[in-house]
Structures are given as structure tokens and as C-alpha cells.
Design a protein that fits this description.
mainly alpha; 2 helices
Length: about 70
């Protein structure tokens, strides 16, 4: 009788772990979808700003490049 109890407990545990893994996988997939959507929106906004202000964008990029160049040359 005890052996059946242990087998049942092991089976229940295995099922619970499987259910938790499925839940975690679904949540991870949802998080990835949300992150991808946010990244696509951000890139779209950035592209629009660059098109609307090309000179300002070029100056900002040059400034960032200058700062990185100075930091990396040290």
C-alpha cells in the first residue's frame, strides 16, 4: 500500500512540475512577444525622429561617436 502512495505522490509531483513548466513557457513566450512589440515600436519612433530631424540626428550620432572614441582610446 505504501508503494502505491509513493508512486501516486511521484506521479502528482511530475504532473505539477510539467504544469509549472508549461506555465513558465507560456509566460516567457508572452514576455518575448511584448518585448518584440516594444522594440519594433521604439525603432519605428526612432526612424521617424531621424527622418524629421536629420541634421540633429547626425550631430547626436557624431557626438556619441566622439565620446565613445575618447573613452575607448584611453
Amino acid at each position: 500500500m505504501e508503494e502505491q502512495t509513493y508512486k501516486r505522490a511521484a506521479s502528482d509531483f511530475t504532473q505539477s512540475m510539467g504544469d509549472m513548466a508549461d506555465t513558465a513557457k507560456a509566460q516567457a513566450a508572452k514576455a518575448v512577444d511584448t518585448a518584440q512589440t516594444a522594440a519594433i515600436d521604439t525603432v519605428g519612433d526612432l526612424e521617424k525622429r531621424i527622418r524629421d530631424n536629420p541634421t540633429q540626428s547626425a550631430l547626436v550620432a557624431a557626438g556619441i561617436g566622439l565620446v565613445l572614441g575618447i573613452l575607448l582610446s584611453r
